[in-house]
């Protein structure tokens, strides 16, 4: 365990010894009064990698010079663009390359996957999910249930924390699954809860869901590129994620999906078909009869959105070069240092209540600070001093030091500002 020290000299020493310190130079930071902001909002939108502009220029040039023939010419013909993103995406979520594909956007993909995996019957119709899931997941599950003629009040089971607690216990999740198992069609959890920052035990949830005879899927919006994932080995049935948070692929960046290989070649599994998901060997014969491609690619509807995928590829290639194990190792130190500094402030009389699990294995980069009635004023104070963090109603400040571009000095500077705020509050 790292023996942290609450000094700027110590933070700078950690930065000098950081094997990933050069990664920071590959990103653009917004400015505040002529200096880089303290950016802790990668859980909402990651910074822009410096290679993105050139990647877009390359594709615009390819379009300008080849027009429609760009689908078939060059080192990365557009016809096969999704294939250029598979290997890197698979490494991030712990999958086989054929189990993943980049396409569409997150909630669109969640609905498409539910077509295949939520097929309720009068006996099995329930969906189990965490209470307080991100609203898009709540709305998706609600409308899926209604589409099939069920009442969400009876068909959706939400697992909530125990009274007085902020996060979920894995035992309570498993017990709920067991209780409703015979009526449950799908378990659908977020990988990391957007509000608390809790990283759920996805292996245990998958095992409990399968023991109950249900399909198990995950929304990995706050997990992909943030925490270690092994979807293939855990046996999850499906998953989806966005690319604009920790994966730094730009606003509205493309989504990815995972479909386990045990389902990838099951052509009897219902799905919504499209031309780009059809067998590529016979795609241009233009005949009736949908024959899905093997693996997750068989869930595609349309050809790749090349410009957004080009930006995504820049970031994926960076992740591939560094590797999730190295990023996770730094993330544990970086978030651990922030937690240490906040606890040091609390020893001096501050009341910064971290609701994210203390166990590093149950969290990623994000720490969620539960505030009192002055919380919004604290958030505005941080913003006014060049901190980019995130406010979530009713009273949480989310801070996410991303290991690929945040430094230990960034974390120290944030704690310094929190300390100054604390001193003002204690004198009033």
Structure described in brief:
The chain is an alpha/beta fold and 428 residues long.
Q: What fraction of the residues are assigned to beta strands by DSSP?
A: 5-15%
Q: Order of strands across the biggest sheet? A: 6-12-11-10-9-7-8
- How far apart the termini lie comes to 38 Å
Number of domains: 2
Output the structural class: alpha/beta
Question: Class of the largest domain, according to the CATH hierarchy?
Answer: Alpha Beta
Compute the number of strand runs.
17
Briefly note the CATH topology name of the largest domain: Aspartate Aminotransferase, domain 2
**Radius of gyration (Å):** 23 Å
Mean of residue pLDDT values = 96
Largest sheet: 7 strands, mixed
Q: Mind telling me the CATH superfamily name of the largest domain?
A: Type I PLP-dependent aspartate aminotransferase-like (Major domain)
CATH architecture level-2 label of the largest domain? 3-Layer(aba) Sandwich
Helicity level: 25-40%
List the helices and strands and how they pair.
Blueprint: H1 8-16, E1 27-28, E2 31-32, E3 35-36, E4 38-39, E5 48-49, H2 52-66, H3 86-93, E6 100-103, H4 106-117, E7 126-130, H5 135-147, H6 152-155, E8 156-159, H7 170-180, E9 184-190, H8 202-211, E10 215-219, H9 231-234, E11 238-241, E12 255-259, H10 261-264, H11 306-322, H12 324-347, E13 353-354, E14 367-370, H13 375-384, E15 387-388, E16 390-392, E17 396-399, H14 408-426
Parallel strand pairs: 4-15, 7-8, 7-9, 9-10, 10-11
Antiparallel strand pairs: 1-5, 2-3, 6-12, 11-12, 13-14, 14-17, 16-17
Helix pairs in contact: 1-14, 2-11, 3-11, 4-5, 7-8, 12-14
């Amino acid at each position: 365990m790292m023996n942290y020290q609450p000094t700027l000299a110590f933070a700078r020493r950690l930065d000098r010894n950081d094997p990933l310190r050069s990664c920071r130079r590959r990103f653009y930071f917004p400015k505040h009064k002529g200096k880089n902001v303290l950016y802790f909002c990668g859980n909402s939108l990651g910074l822009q990698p410096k290679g993105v502009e050139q990647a877009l220029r390359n594709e615009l040039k390819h379009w300008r010079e080849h027009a429609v023939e760009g689908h078939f010419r060059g080192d990365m013909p557009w016809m096969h663009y999704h294939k250029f993103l598979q290997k890197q995406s698979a490494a991030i979520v712990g999958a086989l390359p054929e189990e993943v594909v980049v396409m569409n956007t997150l909630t669109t993909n969640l609905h498409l996957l539910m077509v295949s995996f939520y097929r309720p019957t009068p006996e099995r119709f329930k969906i189990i999910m965490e209470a307080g899931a991100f609203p898009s997941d709540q709305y998706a599950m609600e409308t899926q249930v209604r589409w099939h003629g069920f009442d969400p009040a009876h068909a959706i089971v939400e697992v909530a924390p125990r009274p007085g607690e902020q996060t979920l216990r894995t035992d309570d999740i498993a017990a709920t699954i067991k209780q409703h198992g015979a009526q449950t069609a799908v378990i659908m959890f977020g990988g990391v809860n957007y509000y608390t920052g809790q990283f759920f035990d996805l292996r245990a949830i998958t095992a409990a869901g399968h023991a109950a005879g249900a399909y198990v899927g995950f929304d990995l919006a706050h997990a992909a590129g943030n925490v270690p994932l092994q979807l293939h080995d855990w046996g999850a049935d499906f998953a989806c994620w966005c690319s604009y948070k920790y994966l730094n692929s730009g606003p509205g960046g493309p989504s990815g999906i995972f479909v386990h290989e045990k389902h990838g070649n099951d052509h009897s599994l219902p799905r919504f078909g499209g031309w780009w998901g059809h067998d590529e060997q016979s795609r241009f014969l233009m005949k009736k009869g949908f024959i899905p491609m093997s693996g997750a690619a068989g869930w595609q509807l349309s050809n790749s959105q090349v410009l957004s995928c080009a930006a995504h590829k820049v970031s994926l290639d960076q992740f591939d070069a560094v590797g999730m194990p190295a990023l996770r190792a730094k993330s544990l130190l970086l978030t651990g240092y922030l937690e240490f500094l906040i606890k040091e402030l609390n020893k001096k009389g501050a009341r910064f209540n971290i609701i994210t699990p203390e166990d590093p294995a149950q969290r990623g980069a994000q720490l969620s600070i539960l505030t009192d009635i002055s919380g919004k004023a604290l958030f505005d104070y941080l913003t006014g001093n060049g901190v980019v963090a995130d406010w979530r109603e009713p009273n949480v400040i989310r801070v996410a030091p991303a290991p690929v571009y945040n430094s230990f000095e960034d974390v120290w500077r944030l704690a310094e500002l929190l300390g100054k705020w604390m001193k003002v509050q204690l004198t009033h």
